[in-house]
Design goal:
Blueprint: H1 6-25, H2 27-43, H3 50-73, H4 77-104, H5 118-134, H6 144-152, H7 165-168, H8 182-215, H9 222-253, H10 271-277, H11 280-291, H12 301-319, H13 323-342, H14 344-347, H15 351-370, H16 374-386, H17 402-411, H18 419-436, H19 441-446, H20 452-467
């Protein structure tokens, strides 16, 4: 069951009403009911092997509970270190077995499936154990029901964001948990509608252009190739940002706050800044759990550059078991090293130049993230440079707002010759404007005040999105 489905539109109101009703009588009853709803959400209608995947993750949660209790109770530092090592090794081994057996065996061995959300689950559980070990998170006791909520909370279980334990567990004892006020309900609805519009009307529309382009690489002119490259840059942002908005809205209506995961990343003036704005919780995890333990920037420039490169190779590999993901991660590591070596000379460039360089590099790297193979990635980049200046063919827009375009042509035939130009200009113009504007849906929730005309416009777009649910693809990050 995905967020952008009619079944979820029926599922969530029932869960919300049941959990809030139970929570007003007993916090524990509401928490138990929320966990049952989360487990149901995981199994019901997601993928083949969902039940088996849930069993794997439940075993991982049990390991975290046992290791966490030992980390809290044990006084011997040597024993605590061994417990942490054993817990981290368990989670890392499960991730490697299910996602990377085929890669490391050259395809000779393969599990053939992986539990939904395994990559996010693994990093979140490792963060949980690490914070217990360092006593940055030090509760009086670990409640199995609370740990279950942390591991399987249905808004975040498939694609994050990755939650710090000290930002989540205290909320379960807070008076707002399962006791949202009307401002929370209104802000939550706003974020859910905004995220749905981002996904259905924006991200998947760009996805149509992108998929058409990748299907006919040999026929792309340079302008068409750039439309495909830029289209995927915007598709990925609105897809994942839309997911995080919906997740934050669902959580807010249940009385919980999720962290900001995006902060206008395409406004960044450097690759380093980009990673402080893009998938913020992943960046925080990698910095704290990998970069700092490797030595960070404390052991000289060469070691710092090596650490940066290693971190981004791991980030790429976490996203997928393939050479394209490794190359994508390696490129981002290389870009950051070059920025550090360039230093103050780069900082003296005009802001618009630094932005243009950063945005171009991010676009180029995303080609490898999307490509089925390294050869295909270079063919698309080659077409963008040497593909000729012919205008994009009509097939590039095949399937894009088909019903809406037909209606416009019928009602306003005078616009028929201009439909493709208007469609491309409207989609890419609106996409760039929305991606580059400052502001953040999740931050706006904290000071949200309903406004009639904006609310009415968003409601119309949301209804349009719901009517377009048929054929909508799954969120991109649910595949990682």
């Amino acid at each position: 069951m995905s967020f952008q489905s009619l079944s979820f539109l029926a599922f969530f109101p029932i869960v919300l009403a049941a959990c809030l009703t139970a929570g007003r009588k007993s916090r524990r009853a509401g928490l138990v009911l929320l966990n049952l709803a989360s487990l149901t959400f995981y199994v019901w209608g997601f993928r083949a092997h969902a039940s088996a995947g849930l069993a794997v993750l439940l075993a991982g949660a049990a390991v975290s509970l046992l290791a966490g209790r030992l980390l809290l109770s044990e006084r011997s530092e040597r024993v605590r270190r061994r417990v942490l090592t054993a817990g981290v090794c368990w989670h890392a081994a499960v991730l490697l077995i299910f996602k990377y057996t085929g890669f490391f065996s050259g395809g000779a061995l393969s599990i053939g499936w992986a539990p939904l959300g395994l990559s996010f689950f693994t990093f979140q559980q490792i963060w949980f154990l690490k914070r217990l070990y360092t006593r940055e998170f030090c509760p009086d006791r670990l409640d199995p029901w609370e740990l279950c909520a942390y591991a399987f909370f249905f808004p975040t279980v498939a694609s994050g964001p990755i939650l710090k334990p000290e930002s989540f567990f205290p909320q379960l004892s807070d008076g707002r948990f399962l006791h949202p006020d009307w401002q929370d309900i209104a802000a939550g609805l706003y974020a859910i509608m905004a995220g749905t519009v981002k996904k259905v009307l924006v991200a998947d529309s760009f996805g149509t252009v992108v998929n058409n382009g990748w299907a006919r690489l040999a026929d792309l002119s340079a302008p068409a190739a750039w439309l495909v490259i830029l289209g995927y840059t915007l598709q990925l942002y609105f897809d994942f940002s839309g997911y995080c908005d919906i997740a934050a809205g669902l959580a807010r209506m249940l009385g919980l706050r999720l962290p900001v995961n995006f902060d206008s990343p395409y406004r960044s003036l450097s690759i380093g800044e980009f990673w402080k704005r893009w998938h913020i919780t992943l960046t925080d995890f990698l910095r704290e759990c990998l970069y700092f333990p490797l030595g960070g920037s404390r052991r000289g420039s060469v070691r710092t550059y090596c650490n940066i490169f290693i971190i981004f190779l791991i980030s790429g590999f976490w996203h997928g078991a393939g050479w394209t993901f490794l190359l994508w991660g390696g490129l981002h590591g290389l870009f950051q090293v070059i920025e550090r070596v360039w230093g103050k000379g780069r900082d003296r460039l005009p802001g618009i130049v630094r932005w243009a360089i950063t945005f171009a590099l991010v676009n180029a790297a995303w080609v490898f993230f999307r490509a089925p193979g390294i050869g295909e990635a270079f063919r698309l980049l080659g077409a963008a440079v040497a593909g000729g200046l012919a205008k994009p063919e009509k097939w590039l827009l095949s399937g894009l707002f088909t019903s809406e375009v037909s209606a416009v042509k019928m009602l306003l035939p005078v616009l028929a010759p201009w439909c493709n130009i208007l469609l491309l200009g409207g989609l890419y113009g609106a996409g760039l404007l929305a991606a580059l504007l400052p502001g953040n849906t999740i931050r706006r929730m904290d000071s949200f005040r309903p406004a009639f005309w904006r609310g009415a416009a968003l409601a119309v777009l949301f209804v349009w999105s719901v009517l377009s649910f048929t054929g909508i693809t799954s969120f991109i990050y649910s595949n990682f």
